[in-house]
Specification:
Pfam families: SCO1-SenC. Keywords: Copper, Disulfide bond, Metal-binding. This is Protein SCO1/2. InterPro entries: SCO1/SenC (IPR003782), Thioredoxin-like_sf (IPR036249). The chain is of the alpha+beta class. It has a single domain, classed as Glutaredoxin. The chain has six helices and nine strands. The strands form two sheets. Strands 2-1-5-4-3-8-9 form a seven-stranded mixed β-sheet. The protein has a two-stranded antiparallel sheet with strand order 6-7. The longest helix is centred in the first third of the chain and has 32 residues. 34% of the residues are buried.
């Protein structure tokens, strides 16, 4: 065996060991988080979420890294929504209060899909009314669309000149953990106790993984 061949063999062996270690870590992480019994989605929960740029209640442009500094319950809706959004956000707020009583620091996040009416000031007032910890976000139509696409949400404005138009939209709440991204989502029929239970489970699992 020539010296060059030996060096190549060592490099290949190191690469194989590195890949094996990475796969073992990844599978271990998946296993620990999966034990919380979260929702299933085609392509895996990791297919949901991603970077975004939006505008907060102070009119500042923020990114996902600025927002998700702690475990977060994220909901896409709009402030003029007559029934669904208030109920879903109230459920999330109640789950946050349950978690706070248990010692878990979780923030609710509301992302508007109606940038035409939902200015930073409007979103800020709505968020603070729903919960003092809630972060309200809006943005340009392009920014909102990009965030919605990243989280695989749906929305469609009813056409017409009426200022009281409605917007059809999906109603999932996403659990985002720093360092892990979206790890679960909650449907409308899941109550605050279930949201709090699974959220606490994921937080504990992430702590065991060192994140």
């Amino acid at each position: 065996m020539t010296r060059a061949t030996a060096i190549l063999a060592v490099i290949l062996l190191a690469a194989m060991v590195g890949v094996s270690a990475w796969l073992a870590f990844f599978r271990s992480t998946e296993s620990v988080l999966a034990a919380c019994g979260g929702a299933q989605v085609a392509g895996g929960i990791g297919a949901i979420g991603g970077p975004f740029e939006l505008v907060n209640a102070s009119g500042e442009t923020v990114t996902d890294r600025d927002v998700f500094t702690k475990p977060s319950l994220v909901y896409f809706g709009y402030t003029f929504c007559p029934d669904v959004c208030p109920l879903d956000n109230a459920r999330n707020a109640a789950a946050v209060d349950i978690l706070l009583e248990q010692g878990y620091d979780v923030q609710p996040v509301f992302i508007s899909i109606d940038p035409e009416r939902d200015t930073p000031e409007v979103v800020g007032e709505y968020a603070s009314y729903m919960h003092p910890r809630m972060i309200g976000l809006t943005g340009s139509p392009e920014q909102v669309k990009a965030a919605s696409q990243a989280y695989k949400t749906y929305y469609r404005k009813h056409e017409g000149d009426d200022e009281f138009y409605l917007v059809d939209h999906s109603t999932f709440t996403y659990l985002v953990l720093p360092g892990h991204g979206v790890v679960d989502f909650f449907r409308r029929d899941e109550n605050e106790e279930e949201v709090a239970r699974r959220t606490a489970c994921y937080i504990e699992a992430a702590e065991r993984l060192g994140n």
